[in-house]
Design goal:
Alpha-Beta Plaits; five-stranded antiparallel beta sheet
């Protein structure tokens, strides 16, 4: 898994996700990611067509160990089909 590091000691990675379009799908995704002073959602972009939802998230963390945890949490969201981590 690749990540970039910015000047403020944040590690940053993007996740591409796809799943079944349903009510609260994006909300469940954001709730799966811890949001505090050690982890932040930097960007979130989703689109859905009534059957499938696709999105892209940029996550910033203080410690790289969070990347695997976040990926596992995203995979556990109901209706999730795929989660792919990408170099930004």
């Amino acid at each position: 898994m690749n990540a970039t590091i910015n000047a403020l000691n944040w590690h940053q990675i993007s996740y591409r996700v796809a799943g079944f379009d349903r009510m609260n799908f994006v909300s469940d995704i954001t709730n799966a990611i811890p949001q505090d002073d050690a982890c932040q959602i930097a960007r979130l972009d989703f689109e859905a067509d009534g059957v499938q939802a696709r999105g892209w998230l940029i996550i910033r963390v203080r410690q790289q160990k969070w990347f695997t945890t976040i990926q596992d949490r995203l995979r556990s969201v109901q209706g999730m089909v795929s989660v792919q981590a990408d170099l930004i």
